[in-house]
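so my prof wants the structure for this chain in the C-alpha cells format not the other one, which i didnt know existed until like an hour ago. anyway here's the sequence
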Amino acid sequence: MHERQLFVCPSRTFGCSVSARPTSDPYPVASAEASLAALRLDTAILGCCGLTADGLTAYDLADAAMKRAIIASAHRVIVVADPAKFARTALAFVAPISAISMVVTTDDVAEDDANALVAAGTIVHQA
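here's what i got, hopefully its the right format
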C-alpha cells in the first residue's frame, strides 16, 4: 500500500518557521511560544546556527526563543547541522547539549568536532 511513498507518517506532522525582521513585532513570537507550550511533540527536528559541546545557538533572538519552546515541548530533539555549524557559537543561546537527543550531519564533519559532542553525551549520526 505504501511502497510508492517516500515516507509514511501515521500521525500529524507540524512544521513551523521563524522569519525575523528588524521591524518585526515581538508579540507574534510570544503568541507562537504560548501555542507551542500547549503541544507535546514526539520528535522535533531543528536546524541551528552554532553547535558546540556547550549547546545549541542561533543568531536571532526570536529564532532562539521559538527553538527553546519547541525543545521544551518535545520528547526527542534531533538537530540537523552541516559541518560549518560545528564548533561555532552564535549570539543567542538555545539549549544545552544535554537537551539534544541526536545530531545528524554529513560524513565530512571534523572528527574532533563530532567527538566533542559524543563526549558530552549526544549521539552523532554521520550520513
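also thought this was worth mentioning. Residues 1-8 have pLDDT under 50 and may be disordered.
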